[in-house]
Write a structure and sequence with these properties.
Radius of gyration of chain A: 20 Å
Number of helices of chain A: 8
Number of strands of chain A: 2
CATH topology of the domain at 7-72 in chain A: Arc Repressor Mutant, subunit A
Strand order of the largest sheet of chain A: 1-2
Order of helices and strands of chain A: HHHEEHHHHH
Helix content of chain A: 55-70%
CATH architecture of the domain at 7-72 in chain A: Orthogonal Bundle
Shape of chain A: elongated
CATH superfamily of the domain at 7-72 in chain A: Winged helix-like DNA-binding domain superfamily/Winged helix DNA-binding domain
Largest sheet of chain A: 2 strands, antiparallel
Largest interface: A-B, 41 and 40 residues
Distance between the termini of chain A: 31 Å
Oligomer: homodimer
Strand content of chain A: under 5%
Structural class of chain A: mainly alpha
CATH class of the domain at 7-72 in chain A: Mainly Alpha
DNA sequence: CCTCTTAGTTAGGCTTATCTAACAATTATG
DNA sequence: CATAATTGTTAGATAAGCCTAACTAAGAGG
C-alpha cells in the first residue's frame, strides 16, 4: 500500500506538485528547469509516472498528478519540510544548506521518524513563551564551544518571547 | 578533495571498516552477507574501490582499506552514528528503525549539518545533571499529545540524574 | 497562411549497480 | 594427496536514470 518510490520518482512528483501550487501550467520545460535535468529525462520520467498511475500526461498536453501521485508528493514534501525546519530552527544551519540536505534526505526518513521529528519541532518551537532558553543555550554552546555558565547554574528552559526565526518557511 | 562517493561505494567502505573492527579477515563472503548483496556484486564493487584508491585487494587475497578509504569510511560511520543517536536518544525512535533510517540517510547529510547534529547531541545528552527535563517533557508530549502542565508551569530544563539510555551505542 | 521559434518527443548511448549462471581457485577432509 | 566443499571471479543480462542529437508538433509574427 504505502510502498516508497525511487528517489528520482519522488523528486518528479514533488516538483510537479510544487510547480502546480505556484500556478500556471505545469510543463516539461518548467519541470526540467526546476529539477536541473534535461527535457528528455522529464519526458521519460513522466511516462514512468503515468504507467505507475501517479500522473496523467497526453502527448504535448497537460501534466497532472492523480490522487495517488498527489498523496505521495505531499508525503515527500512533508518530510522535506520537517527536515528543513529541524536543520534551520534547531541546528541553526543556513537555509540553502538545509534545503539541499532536506532535498537529499527526504526520500529516506521512515514515516515513524518524520512523525517524531514533526512533533519535536512542534514541541520545541511551540513553547508557549517563545524560543526555549535551552535552545539559546545550544547556540551559545555552538559559538563558544562550551556551556554558558549562567544557563548551567539556572539550567532553565524558560522561553524567550520573540523568536529569532520569524519566517514561516 | 572531500568529494563524496556514491551511496553504494560509501556502504562498501563502511562495511569493510566495520567488519575489520569486528576482527578476522575481511572476505568477499562476509561483505556480501553483511550488506545483503551477492558475491559478484562485491567483487565488482571492490575492483572499483581499488581503482579509486580506496582499497587494496589481490585476487583471492586480502581486502584492506587504504588511508583514503578509511578516512571516508570513518566519515560515513560518524554520520551514521550521529543520525542514529539523534533518532534514538532525542526522538525516542526504536533502535532497529533508527539504524535503518541512519543507514539510508548517512550518505546525504552535509558535513556542516553532521557537525551541528553532533554538537546538539553532545549538548543535550551531556547536560551536567543528566537527561534534561525538557526532553522528559517531550516524551510526555509524545505520549499524551499535549504538554505536561507541570513542565509548562516550571518550564524548567533541570536535568535528571540517571539517564534512561545508558548504552554506549 | 507561411515561416520561425519554442516546446516536446524519439532514438540511442552511457554509467552505476545489481543479478544469475558458469567457471576457477582455495581449503578442508577422509 | 585426491576429491569435495567452499570461496571468489568472469561473463553477460537487466534496470534506472541520465545525457546528446535529431526530429516533430505547436504557436506567434509578419
Amino acid at each position: 500500500m504505502t510502498d516508497r518510490q525511487s528517489a528520482s520518482m519522488e523528486d518528479y512528483l514533488e516538483a510537479i506538485m510544487v510547480l502546480d501550487r505556484e500556478g500556471g501550467k505545469v510543463t516539461v520545460t518548467r519541470i526540467s528547469q526546476a529539477m536541473g535535468v534535461k527535457k528528455p529525462s522529464v519526458t521519460s520520467a513522466l511516462s514512468r509516472l503515468v504507467e505507475m498511475g501517479f500522473a496523467t500526461h497526453e502527448k504535448y498536453g497537460e501534466i497532472h498528478l492523480t490522487g495517488k501521485g498527489l498523496r505521495i508528493a505531499r508525503d515527500v514534501y512533508k518530510r522535506h519540510q520537517a527536515l528543513k525546519r529541524f536543520l534551520i530552527d534547531i541546528l541553526d544551519v543556513k537555509e540553502d544548506i538545509a534545503s539541499e540536505d532536506a532535498c537529499r534526505m527526504e526520500h529516506y526518513l521512515s514515516s515513524i521518524s518524520v512523525e517524531r521529528l514533526d512533533k519535536f519541532i512542534e514541541y520545541v518551537m511551540g513553547c508557549p513563551q517563545g524560543k526555549p532558553l535551552w535552545l539559546e543555550g545550544f547556540n551559545y554552546y555552538l559559538n563558544h564551544g562550551k556551556r554558558n555558565p549562567e544557563h548551567m547554574a539556572a539550567c532553565s528552559s524558560r522561553c524567550k518571547v520573540s523568536s529569532k526565526n520569524g519566517k514561516l518557511f
